[in-house]
Amino acid sequence: MSIIAGKSRLILAATGCILAAAYALSAGRLHTPAFSDPMGPRAVPFLIAIGLAVSCVALVVEHLAIGRKSGTSAVPADAGDSDDGLTFIAVLTLGLLVGYYFLLERLGFIASTAIFLLVFLSVTNRRRWLMNVLIAVLFPLAAYLLLSTLLGARLPVGIFEIG
To answer: What is the pTM for the complete model shown?
Structure first.
């Protein structure tokens, strides 16, 4: 059994924590103008960093809960190289995020997010096509309206000239 077998949740959590810390440090270096809105340019990046850190903690808790359920502090020795497909999902997510990054400016927030969600949910939530399509269509629309109207964020419109 390899050293990382059964520990992909911990590796993903550690990587996420490093990224969250780096993102928070970068957000802390943003210049805040003297006459800016109360939230300022730092608020959203800090919220993203906090969300990522909380997700990492949840992964560690999940790993420990699975270990307790199996009677050990980690994945059982007979688990082999199986990690319940988590490594595949992590690699898929990373690939989709890279694609999302390159499509965001070209297609816009709504279309890029819809494609990302539809592909991701089609793989991780099989047999629920109607729910996947509804989420992939409604979430980007709701998020766009929330971010652009409530927070005043300027998101790429791409192929949809909404804003």
So the answer is: 0.55
